[in-house]
Design brief:
- This protein has helices at 8-22, 31-45, 50-57, 62-73, 84-100, 120-131, 133-136, 150-158, 171-177, 191-194, 227-240; strands at residues 109-114, 141-147, 160-161, 178-181, 186-189, 197-201, 213-218, 241-249, 263-266, 269-271.
- The chain has 274 residues and is of the alpha/beta class.
- The strands form two sheets. It has a seven-stranded mixed sheet. The protein has a three-stranded antiparallel sheet with strand order 3-5-4.
- The longest helix has 17 residues, at 84-100.
- The N and C termini lie far apart (60 Å).
- Bound molecules: S-adenosylmethionine.
- The site of S-adenosylmethionine (SAM) has 25 residues, from loops.
């Protein structure tokens, strides 16, 4: 076998490692995809074969390579206003209601976009918050975006997007909140919107700091998690959710049966009892 081919046994070892570190069960059919993604790491590190790369990752030097390994294996596909009805609910129901709730002075309304990839999800939230300032009656809103991929978060921080990412953002909102570079055909969010989101590396298999959150978005990430790793994630999400707080769940998460302690309001919307 050529050095740059991924053998079945090595594929299994990488699959096990990915599961252990990130909770993701890569399907056996995805060998070519995994090989292509890891090949980039072989080139970048100068390591000549997949077994040698695996040995490196699991050696004492492994922790230094792990972030780049996770960047390579995660899929960061996302765009603004994905599932537009989630954002309609946020703007029309959640924000006005949260603003009316009595809260300790100085405590902001806290929203967490868990597994935010390159930032389009928390930035969509920020755009709705910016547009709804009046309904918020002076209440502060803090928005946290977290992901396992540091490279995705770096892109998020920069806040520049291609046409595809903003295809659901209307022309008025684009003009109000983005600067357009016609040469690069890039839309860059204005600093006042970018500064509304705080970014942090975070693994969903671990507890999160910064809660309790009044609303958590968990979307399009758990599709390849198995029942055990989903359970671990759900346990942390529920612990981080404020009483009366809402969980917005993506269509492919497969965790509905694990949310028994929450009140189901819609197929994608759950609330923790107050
Ligand atoms: C397809 S994107 C979803 C982005 C956004 N939530 C959306 O729905 O458009 C999935 C993201 O989950 C992240 N991810 C995968 N496993 C994770 C884990 N164990 N902890 C935190 N993030 C993880 C990936 O890095 C990737 O950016």
């Amino acid at each position: 076998m050529a050095d740059d081919e991924l053998g079945d046994r090595d594929f299994e070892r990488f699959r096990d490692l990915i599961y252990k570190v990130a909770g993701i069960r890569i399907p056996p059919t995805k060998k070519v995809m995994v090989a292509n993604r890891l090949r980039r790491r072989l080139r970048a590190t100068g390591i000549v074969s997949f077994p040698a790369y695996y040995a490196h990752l699991t050696s004492p030097a492994g922790p230094a390579e792990m972030p780049a390994f996770l960047d390579a294996i995660t899929t960061n596909e996302t765009y603004f206003y994905r599932d537009a009805h989630h954002y309609q609910w946020l703007a029309e129901t959640f924000l006005p209601e949260a603003a009316r709730r009595p809260k300790a002075r100085g405590v902001p309304i806290r929203i967490w976009s868990a597994a935010c990839a390159t930032g389009e999800e928390p930035y969509s939230i920020a755009l709705k918050v910016a547009a709804g300032r009046q309904a918020l009656a002076g209440r502060d809103v803090s928005i946290l975006g977290t992901d396992l991929s540091g490279a995705a978060l770096e892109t998020a921080r920069i806040g520049a997007f291609d046409e595809r990412a903003v295809h659901l953002v209307g022309p008025e909102e684009r003009n109000r909140s983005f600067d357009f570079d016609p040469a690069l055909r890039r839309w860059t969010l204005r600093p006042e919107v970018r500064s509304m989101v705080t970014w942090r590396l975070h693994n969903l298999l671990k507890p999160v700091d910064g809660g309790p959150f009044d609303c958590i978005f968990i979307k399009n990430v758990l599709i390849y998690f198995d029942a055990d790793s989903k359970q671990a994630v759900v346990r942390h999400l529920l612990a981080a959710l404020a009483r009366g707080g809402y969980l917005v769940v993506g269509p492919t998460e497969g965790i509905f049966s694990m949310l028994g302690t929450l009140t189901k309001l819609k197929t994608w919307l759950y609330q923790k009892p107050a």
